[in-house]
Amino acid sequence: MKFTEEHEWLRVDGDEVVVGITAHAAEQLGDVVFIELPDEGTTVSKDDEVVVIESVKAASDILAPLDGEITEVNEALVDEPGKVNEDAEGEAWFFKMKIEDMSALDDLMDEAAYKKYIG
Q1: I want to staple 114 with a disulfide (CB 3.0 to 4.6 A). Which of 35, 52, 57, 109 is the partner?
Q2: Residue 99, by phi and psi: left (phi above 0), alpha (psi -120 to 50) or beta?
Q3: Residue 58: its pLDDT value, please?
């Protein structure tokens, strides 16, 4: 897995990348109560706002980690947003995307670097 400074994780799955938020981010948010996902087929640029997530503490935007196209969204989270708190780095992924340049993943942190980043 790769990680961003915005506390997102990315996992390569074939020719797509699965994107979610880290357990650390989910912990900081507190109980997640609402998630708005992007539409499948949407083309996004790095740092576009793609997901709205609301918790008992705050509302946050999840940004596109890379340029690409949203190919699938995790509809289960709309009905059960609390899954993010239960399994942030597993079943509670937000979306899958095809990215334009797979080598862009090389610029992101690995797990050791992310752990150091969050200290």
Answers
A1: 109
A2: beta
A3: 87
List beta partners, residue 60: 53
What's the token pair of residue 108? Answer: 């992101």
pLDDT in tens, 33-77: 999 999 999 999 999 999 999 999 889 999 999 999 999 999 999
Query: What is d(CA 63, CA 111) in angstroms, rounded to the nearest whole number?
Result: 20
CA distances from 93 to 51, 58, 116, 119 (A): 11, 19, 23, 24
Nearest to 26 by CA among 74, 75, 80, 88: 88
Query: Would you state the structure tokens that stand for residue 88, as one six-digit string?
Result: 């942030």
Is 118's pLDDT higher than 90? yes
Q: Determine the Cα–Cα distance for residues 64 and 54; give it in Å rounded to an integer.
A: 17
Expressed in angstroms, the distance from the first to the final Cα of the chain is 18
